[in-house]
Amino acid sequence: MSSPFSTIGFIGTGAITEAMVRGLLAEPAATARIVVSARNAQTAARLAADFPAVEIAADNQAIVDAADLVILAIRPQIAEEVVRPLVFRAGQAVISLVAAVDRERVADWIGAPVNLTQAIPLPFVARRIGVTAIFPPDPLAERLFGILGTPVPCASREEYQLLAAASAMMATYFGIMDETVRWLGAKGMPDEAARTYVTALFADLSVSARDTDLPSFAELSHEYATKGGLNEQVHDDFRRHGGASAITSALERVLARIEGKPF
Ligand SMILES: NC(=O)c1ccc[n+]([C@@H]2O[C@H](COP(=O)([O-])OP(=O)(O)OC[C@H]3O[C@@H](n4cnc5c(N)ncnc54)[C@H](OP(=O)(O)O)[C@@H]3O)[C@@H](O)[C@H]2O)c1
């Protein structure tokens, strides 16, 4: 599948830009030309060295001028000062990846009648397997993220913000794995053996979660917990010590941040 855009420009060449560029230009390449910011210098140089289709722009305005799709991939703290001075063309496609900044604010910074979409690509797009929430639904953005995995068009801003909150569980997922591996290490298990075991355990659980016919994860959890057994004991301890409420309150707080409320 090829991209509906012939030149894609990225403002901000950080982690998520690198993942998207690698996904888009993996063989067979999905687009002919990608223009990236000079910042971050090392990431831009690495991408240009790996892919002849990648050009490093002299400045951010040159990216907007060259691209038929502009992707905003800078951090929220500096996004306004980076975007406001840029001059966009009417009808130009723009996708904002900037977290916790709603579409109306980005549209105000842009100040021109562009076709503005928001998206949450995840690092897995580098391997063309990421789920990407998109708001509002947009056929061209959906085609682009279809190349990089599975687009998830959101019917409402609220739904998009909820998925943004859920996507913030990634570090915690690895954090649970890390705590388990550390604990095994502290008990004398060699690090590599601990990592290998825990990685396979979590990978198999993820596959089971994906492939289950059961209507809820609660039922899956129940199925994996023998009555009076070890899994039931750990899950009970987890809940009794505030594990479940820690997850709920963390999601509430990150949602408040995404909604621009005090958190
Ligand atoms: N990482 C993810 O999984 C992910 C997923 C979805 C959305 N997002 C969102 O996407 C945005 C980028 O995230 P990220 O993880 O890629 O961040 P990042 O790695 O910090 O990348 C941001 C890049 O912007 C560059 N930059 C700073 N000032 C600039 C300027 N004036 N002009 C052009 N580029 C400039 C930085 O360069 P220097 O290093 O030189 O300062 C940096 O390389 C954020 O808003 C984030 O919330 C990230």
Low-confidence stretches: none
What portion of residues belong to β-strands?
Answer: 5-15%
Helix content: 40-55%
Name the CATH class of the largest domain. Alpha Beta
How large is the radius of gyration?
A: 21 Å
CATH superfamily of the largest domain: NAD(P)-binding Rossmann-like Domain
- Outline the biggest β-sheet: 8 strands, mixed
**How far apart, in Å, are the first and last alpha carbons?**
41 Å
CATH architecture of the largest domain: 3-Layer(aba) Sandwich
Number of strand segments: 8
Shape: globular
Number of domains: 2
CATH topology of the largest domain: Rossmann fold
Describe the protein's architecture and organization:
By secondary structure, the protein is α/β, with parallel strands linked by helices. It folds into two domains: 7-154, NAD(P)-binding Rossmann-like Domain (Rossmann fold); 168-258, Orthogonal Bundle (ProC C-terminal domain-like fold), CATH 1.10.3730. The protein contains twelve helices and eight strands. It has helices at 15-25, 41-50, 60-66, 76-83, 103-110, 139-147, 157-167, 170-186, 191-211, 217-223, 230-240, 243-258, and strands at 7-11, 33-36, 54-56, 69-72, 93-96, 115-120, 130-135, 149-153. An eight-stranded mixed sheet has the order 3-2-1-4-5-6-7-8, with helices on both faces. Helix 7 (157-167) packs across helix 12 and helix 8 runs antiparallel to helix 9. The longest helix has 21 residues, at 191-211. The radius of gyration is 21 Å and the shape is globular. It starts with 6 loop residues before the first strand and ends in a 5-residue tail after the last helix. 28% of the residues are buried. The structure holds NADP nicotinamide-adenine-dinucleotide phosphate. NADP nicotinamide-adenine-dinucleotide phosphate binds next to helix 1 and helix 4.
